[in-house]
Amino acid sequence: MIKRKTQTRAQPEGELDAGKLELGEDFQDAECLLISEVKVLLEAQYEGRKGEEEEDKEMSGVFTRTLEYVQKFSRYTNRDTIKEVRALMKPTSLHPFECAQLGNLCCSEYEEAKSLVP
Fold first, then answer.
1. Which terminus of the chain has a lower count of CB atoms within 10 Å, N or C?
2. Helix intervals (H) in 4-118
3. What is the pLDDT along the chain (118 residues), one digit of tens a residue?
């Protein structure tokens, strides 16, 4: 039997609720990114490793799966579009987490957005 190392995190004092923007201490000063922005960052990381030796180039399974995920679910394909989406969201009174969620979901109707991002 193989034992896996597990990292333990401090459990939050109460229940967190993203619907009430209770995201936890780890996310207090964090920037919320669009999936498309994560894709740009991960692809740049991947491309940066192309020149390294083959054994060092090997990416972790988590990195590879995350890259595949963001490539599959990224809504915006070029950086100019990502910048435009960010610019559209900036002047709103929404929390950055809500902006990222709406940008990722690309809702076509107000009611849909309201039901998915309370």
1. N
2. 35-48, 54-57, 61-73, 79-89, 96-105, 110-116
3. 444 455 555 555 567 777 677 777 877 777 889 999 999 999 999 888 776 655 545 678 888 899 999 999 999 988 999 999 989 888 888 888 888 888 888 888 888 888 887 6
Distances (CA, A) of 12 to 24, 33, 41, 97, 112: 7, 23, 29, 19, 30
pTM: predicted TM-score of the whole model, two decimal places: 0.71
Which residue from 35, 45, 49 is spatially nearest to 77, judged by alpha carbons? 35
| Phi and psi based region of residue 24 (left: phi greater than 0; alpha: psi -120 to 50; beta: remaining) | left
Residue type, 22: E
